Structures are given as C-alpha cells and as structure tokens.
Amino acid sequence: MNQPPATILVVDDLPANLGLLFDALTHAGHRVLVAESGESALAQLQHETPDLVLLDYMLPGMDGMEVCKRIKARPECVDLPVLFLTAVNELDEKVRALDAGAVDYVTKPIQTPEVLARVRTHLRIARLQRELADELEMRREAEEQLRDSLDQALVVVNPEGRILFATRLAQTLLTRSFPSALPGNLPAELRSLANDRTAKPGQVAPGLSARPLTGGPGEPLVIELQAQTSLGPNALLSLGLTPREAEVLFWLSEGKTNAEIGLILNSARRTVEKHVEHILEKLGVENRAAAIRSALAVLKQAA
Predict the structure, then answer these.
(1) Taking Cα atoms as reference points, which of 269, 167, 275 lies closest to residue 223?
(2) Is 62 helix (H, G, I), strand (E, B) or coil?
(3) Which of 39, 81, 138, 219 has its CB 3.0 to 4.6 Å from that of 122, i.e. a possible disulfide?
(4) Helices 269-283 and 258-265, axial angle in degrees (round to 10)
(5) Is the separation of the CB atoms in 45 and 89 below 8 Å?
C-alpha cells in the first residue's frame, strides 16, 4: 500500500541549501516546508507538525541545538525525528546534538543521495514505531473490553499462584477482600485452590466465596468468585450507571483517589477521570462529594 507523502521541515539560513534540499525532497515525492531561522521553524510548528525535520546546526541567533531542545519540549513533537545538517566534525558536538534529541546527522557539504537515504530510513522507523504503538493500544483496548464484557468474577492463575487474567468484578472483589495482597499474586487464602485442584468451593473471606471451574495439573486454573452480600458496585447500577461507572463510584465512596482507582481497575488515570465526569453528569451533581453521598445512600439502603 502506497504511503501518503511525508511532510518535511527544512531549517537552514542559506538559500542555496534550502533550494537544493527542496528540489531533491520534492522530486522524491515529499511535501516540503522551509524556514530560514529557528524562530521561524518554531512558529511553523504552532500550525503544523511535520513528519521529519532537517535542522541546520549553525543557525544565526537561536542555534540548532536550542531549536532542537525546544522542538522536543513540545508534547506533540516528542517522537518527531530531527536530523541535524552540520559541518561540525568534532565528536563532542555530534554527541551533544544526539543528546539534544536528534536521531541522526548529515555532514555538510550536502550530498542529496545521503540525505534522501537517511530521510527514508528515519521515516520508515517512525512509521513502524507508530504502527507498533497503535497495535499495543488496540490490544490494550481489546483486553479492557474483554474484562468489561464479562459480568462474572473470574480469575485465571498459573500453578504458582500468579494471576494471569482477572475480570473487572473479580479484581474489585479481590482488592476489597484482600487489600494487603501483593498485586498480581493470588491471596494466600485462595492458594489452596491453585495448589489443590480438588479443593471444594467455599468461603475464603468474609462475604466472599470461591470455586474452581477448570484446570488440570500443571495448567492454568479458572476460579470464580462470588460476593455473598449485596453491598458492592452492582448496588450502584440502580443509579443508571454502566458497570464500569458503578465500580468507579463504589471506590470513590471507599475514599480512593483517581490514581488509586486506576490501579485497582487497571485503567489509565485519564480514563477514570472521564468516568467521574460521566458519573457527575448522570447523577446531576456538581462535584465528587455529592456523588459519593448519593452512592453511600444507595449502599446504606442495600445493607
């Protein structure tokens, strides 16, 4: 599949260099932006983020090193490939350029075949990095959706008692019943199920029972947890919340912060904050304290 043209910003104070690179890059199928100073380059970045920057090391006024640092300080440019164009041959200066955030450098006088080869290489690396990041994000979202789609409290553990997978509800019950357990490890009270696959189901903590579902010797074991009380996130579904929102509100009522809830539910803090916003909107309240009062009222009634 053909890739769309890459946008390349060329920063150089010499018109001859700008013209040479503009012609070569345009002929190679790229879209080219030009800037004759560091200040001009930074101003252009306010309107558009290119796919790659060719940056002259020796610029008048703000030099290339400072320009590179300022580019990398912009959140949207953290992964932007910057290649220095430099006539400097000292090793220390080249190391400084790389330390400033550049990924490579091209030595002047400019040889267009070398520039084009390095541009192709770093555009390909950047594309592969984006594709990998997108793939990892898709996998994370798929796992999140799987956790949310299962309304049972299921835990998958290996023979050593390490948790391989847990649904949202299972994680909530484990955290509530065994707050001192090490993350990722099956609590000691449940180890008998992992060590003895013939163990009978029964109570493992106040208000919590467990039973093994599947798993032969040496194989992962699936354990189903069951709450023996109506108190919990499900009681908050009556407020018109989704199961995830009910979990977030439940832990808010337990005095947890957004960061702590993110750890409990294995979600990003920003995701938790979005859920809190939706909860406030659905409950018609203005702040967390009011939402917590609503949750406590429902939980008290359920008790």
Answers:
(1) 167
(2) coil
(3) 81
(4) 110
(5) no
Taking a C-beta distance cutoff of 8 angstroms, is the pair 85, 25 a contact?
no
Can you give the pLDDT at residue 287?
Answer: 92
Token couple for 196? 């003895």
Residue 53 contacts by C-beta under 8 Å, 6 or more apart in sequence? 8, 9, 10, 11, 41, 71, 80, 81, 82, 83
Show the domain range for 83. Answer: 7-138
Whether the CA torsion 194, 200, 203, 208 is positive or negative: it is positive
pLDDT at residue 184, as a whole number: 87
Domain boundary (138, 162, 184) is at 138
The SS3 of residue 63 is coil
CATH number of the domain at 156, please.
3.30.450.20
Domain presence at residue 145: no
Six-digit token pair at 154? 């299921």
Q: In this predicted model, what pLDDT tens digit does every residue of 154-172 receive, in sequence order?
A: 888 888 888 988 887 888 8
| Pairwise CA distance, residues 195 & 198, whole Å | 9
58 and 132 together in one domain = yes
CB 77 within 8 A of CB 71: yes
Q: Quick check: 184 and 204 in contact, CB under 8 A? A: no
Distance CA 7, CA 25 (A): 10
Where does 59-137 show beta strands of DSSP type E? 82-86, 104-107
Co-location of 217 and 282 in the same domain: no
